[in-house]
Design brief:
two-stranded antiparallel sheet; 7-stranded mixed β-sheet; alpha/beta; 15 helices; elongated; about 425 residues; about 55% helix
Length: about 425
């Protein structure tokens, strides 16, 4: 079987039969060996029977959620290729040939682009059309260097094996973003074809919640891009804090009628500490996510870790700490010169604040280096222990053809890149 058309379904009695008939008609007209599979997520309005009567194979998915329904349908699919689309009659299941052609030419993931193909009046809320989708798609292109113009089009095709290999985990609407992000990070071939969006045929409210699901998409994009979540904001704070501190430490800095003094130095110190901590978190995330397979390993990070050994990290932290300690000693001597009486804080804090900041950064470097070494211990395994067979036979993996299968129970059996 070449193609399976998968439709997630939750109470779509008004439209599911229409969608199934359109997809079946496409398969017949194009001469493609295929099937229509409805991944039912617990409908209570008779959608299952309507889909079966229209010619679909219905697979019950017990765990709730858009991602759960789709992944369950993908696992149960019998076709080499899968095209997924919502069962609300908003997508054109009679015109799937552009997706099939791209898949036959070797694409791993083929995205539909509704903005290129045409959006019917009333088919997409203005907030989604002019703000939500463009902004999230831009963020996706920026974070992951993707050329996809419509990150959240629900009509898309892909190689079944290539998609299962990505080990997708999202259970909700962010599953759509996870699919594109992981395919891009894994180096799969991702292409795009124009498609249309019509006003859906249901009378009930949509399952999509604008702000909640929009935030879940954005949150997912951030979590899978530690460079934009941690590194770049942290680097900006760190550099700005160092620059401001360097200007204010010698003497107050005046800009017009505004004077920047020790209070500004305190803020600069906080920027340095927070910025450096954020950069460390980026490094921790890259190492952990790379070792666990969540993200591809960054060559630059690997080169940095090769140079930043535990001993070198401890020496660097000790050097920064020694500078901070020297500053504290000078501050104590200055206080001694004042007979340990009241100090002129505009002068004394100019040395005390940078010294304390250096001690904090020193502790961050030392503790961070130890933590990276711990992550390295977890990542390093002896070849003998990796290749050794388990002491007892493992239970056989569940068959992907089981229609009632829960795809979360199969994640261990799915191949990983």
């Amino acid at each position: 079987m070449e193609l399976t058309v998968v439709m997630p379904c939750l109470n779509e009695a008004e439209t599911v039969a229409t969608c199934v008939r359109k997809a079946m008609g496409f398969l017949t007209a194009s001469g493609i060996s295929g099937e229509v599979l409805v991944a039912d997520n617990g409908s209570t309005d008779g959608s299952q029977q309507l889909a079966t009567d229209a010619g679909a194979r219905v697979v019950p998915i017990s765990e709730k959620g858009y991602g759960n329904a789709l992944m369950g349908g993908i696992v149960a699919a019998r076709g080499r290729y899968v095209i997924m689309g919502d069962a609300d009659d908003s997508y054109d299941f009679t015109n799937l040939m552009p997706f099939v052609n791209e898949l036959r030419q070797g694409a791993d993931l083929v995205m539909g682009n509704r903005f290129a193909g045409g959006i019917a009046p009333g088919a997409m809320p203005p907030l989604h059309r002019y703000l939500g989708n463009p902004v999230l798609s831009f963020v996706g292109r920026l974070f992951f260097r993707s050329n996809i113009g419509d990150f959240h089009c629900g009509l898309r095709g892909f190689s079944r094996d290539a998609m299962i290999a990505l080990n997708l985990q999202a259970t909700g609407m962010e599953f759509a973003s996870e699919m594109v992000v992981k395919a891009t990070l894994a180096g799969q071939r991702v292409t795009e074809v124009p498609t249309t969006l019509a006003k859906d045929g249901r009378t009930r409210p949509p399952h999509l919640h604008t702000w909640r699901d929009g935030w879940r998409h954005l949150r997912f994009l951030l979590l899978f891009s530690p460079r934009w979540l941690f590194f770049l904001p942290g680097l900006v704070l760190l550099v700005a804090g160092l620059a401001i501190g360097a200007i204010v430490v010698p003497h107050p800095f005046k800009f017009g009628a505004v004077t920047f003094d020790v209070d500004t130095l305190v803020a600069a110190s906080a920027m340095v500490v927070i910025g450096f901590q954020s950069v460390l978190f980026w490094l921790f995330t890259q190492v952990y996510a790379g070792s666990e397979g969540f993200l591809p390993e960054e060559p630059k990070v690997q080169r940095l870790l090769e140079k930043l050994s535990l001993e070198r990290g401890l020496l660097l932290g000790a050097a920064i700490g020694a500078a901070g300690l020297a500053g504290l000693i000078f501050s104590l001597l200055y206080w001694n010169g004042q007979k340990f009486s009241h100090l002129n804080y505009e002068h004394s804090l100019r040395l005390m604040i940078p010294s304390v900041t250096a001690l904090i950064v020193s502790c961050q470097v030392i503790l961070g280096t130890f933590f990276l070494s711990i992550l390295g211990i977890k990542h390093t395994r002896h070849p003998v222990t990796v290749s050794a067979p388990p002491p007892q036979a493992a239970e056989p993996a569940p068959s992907v053809a089981d229609p009632a299968v829960n795809h979360r129970e199969q994640s261990a059996a799915a191949p990983r890149l």
